[in-house]
Design goal:
With about 280 residues, this protein is α+β, with helices and mostly antiparallel strands. The chain has helices spanning about 90-95, 110-125, 130-150, 160-175, 180-190, 195-205, 210-225, 230-240, 245-255, 260-265, 270-280; strands at about 1-10, 10-20, 30, 35-50, 50-55, 60-65, 70-75, 80-85, 105. It has eleven helices and nine strands. A hairpin with a 3-residue loop joins strand 1 and strand 2 (about 10-20).
């Protein structure tokens, strides 16, 4: 079993599990230390919990409640991979839902959960500007909504809350060159992370992490256009902790690489002309 922590924050810890166990592997009892909602990304396995057995396949959701014992079985040789969102007690309380929801055990592949699971996987691979903690909260909230049949009403953004969201955006923008996470921004706004995520998205139309990434991209574009520093220096100066992630994210936003963007800003109009022609043909 390969276990890798992708993100550790106060509200959500995201863990990548990759198991290569096959039919020869003897099952054994395991224990959930925390409550988790896990997206089965690949493969299959059996999940025994509370006297019931659930057959998990790609797209399924595994629910583990803190304190419960469980057993995984492997009737096929394909192995399995899961992206697990381990939830804090405060987040579980904020998500609401009846206690029975966390005893569900396993949920069949449902499109409402699968699309969010793939969004989270994309975020884990650095291919989305949605934060992994945000994707985890969205995934868990959708699970609660499906199991309980209760849809959470969108937050009512009154004047005070709208000011909070805007002030939070100003704070994120001012600190975008530093490490900023959802918990820290929510703490600055005086709200729980889950409520802050919903309110911020309601008022501003983007998630806090999306706004953070776009603040960094805006600064990067200005620095590249003004020819300030190397591509690497620009990436780290605006807050990206990984050069390849910066190049990929900037390219996705601008349609050209940071290097090509800089050349175009210096007067090489052919780059953007080709890009516009390609877009028009598409």
């Amino acid at each position: 079993m390969s276990v890798r922590t992708v993100l550790a924050s106060g509200s959500v810890e995201v863990v990548d599990y990759r198991c290569e166990a096959g039919v020869s592997a003897a099952p054994f009892a395991e224990h959930h230390d925390v409550t988790c909602v896990s997206y089965v990304r690949k493969g299959s396995f059996g999940y025994r919990l509370g006297g019931k057995t659930f057959e998990m396949v790609a797209g399924s959701t595994v629910i583990g409640r803190a304190g419960d014992d469980y057993v995984c079985t492997h009737d096929h040789q394909c192995g399995d991979e899961c992206l697990s969102f381990q939830l804090s007690p405060a987040l579980i309380e904020a998500l609401g839902g009846k206690p029975e929801a966390w005893r569900t055990g396993g949920v069949a592949p449902l499109p409402e959960l699968m699309v969010l699971g793939e969004l989270a996987q994309s975020a884990a691979e650095g291919c989305s500007d949605v934060g992994m903690d945000e994707a985890g909260m969205l995934y868990a909230a959708r699970f609660v909504s499906i199991v309980t049949g209760q849809r959470r009403a969108p937050p009512q953004a009154v004047g005070r809350d709208r000011r909070r969201a805007v002030e939070a955006a100003l704070w994120i923008d001012a600190n975008a060159h530093q490490a900023v996470d959802l918990d820290g921004a929510a703490r600055e706004a005086g709200l729980s992370p889950f409520h802050f995520l919903r309110l911020f998205a309601k008022v501003l139309g983007v998630t806090p992490h999306q706004y953070l990434v776009r603040s960094r991209l805006r600064r990067a574009a200005r620095m590249l256009a003004q020819d300030h520093g190397s591509i690497t220096d620009v990436a780290y100066d605006v807050g990206f902790g990984d050069l390849s992630n910066f190049v990929r994210t900037f390219g996705r936003a601008a349609g050209v690489s940071p290097r090509a963007f800089r050349k175009a800003a210096k007067g090489d109009r052919k780059i953007f002309q080709e890009r516009l022609a390609t877009s028009a043909l598409g």
